[in-house]
Amino acid sequence: MAEEKEINQKKGLSDLVKGGIEESKRSLSRIEAEGEKLLKNLLELADRYVPEGQRKAVEEVTGEARKIMGQLNKLLEENARKAVQGLNIPTKKDLEELNAKIRRLVEENVTRRIEKLKVPTGKDFSDLRKQLLKAAEDTVQRGLERLNIVTRKEFERLSKEVGKLRADLNGALKAAGSQKRRAPKKASSS
Asked: What is the pTM of this model?
């Protein structure tokens, strides 16, 4: 609560200073405009009423008046700048530097947090999927072995082996049958 009050006070003071600077600039602009009018009028009067020999002196005075107005303008701007610096009001450059620093710190913080979290990548998910599938297959295989249930792979392997045994048996039977036919018949004794 105290911080908020202090911030509001600084903001009010900052607005007050900015308003004073703006008012000073407007006043200075009015003074410059009036000074230019006076100088212009002075030159016009000099053209009308001042003899030719003295006009040079009037032009010198006018030039000096312009210099003084320029110096006054610079002096007022310098005093306004010093007043703002004395109040510790950040400049546009200061704010831009702070914003850049904040942006950099936030990016570093987010990067550090992401690295700590070790957010998985697409490859990590692919590897994890393979590991999970392998673990699931192993678990199912162990369960089937406990239940003495044959898996499709085992069934297909056994079917092939049975097929080979059948073929071997049929081959052996055919060979035995052809040997039987070739053997001479014995005469029966009665």
From this structure: 0.32
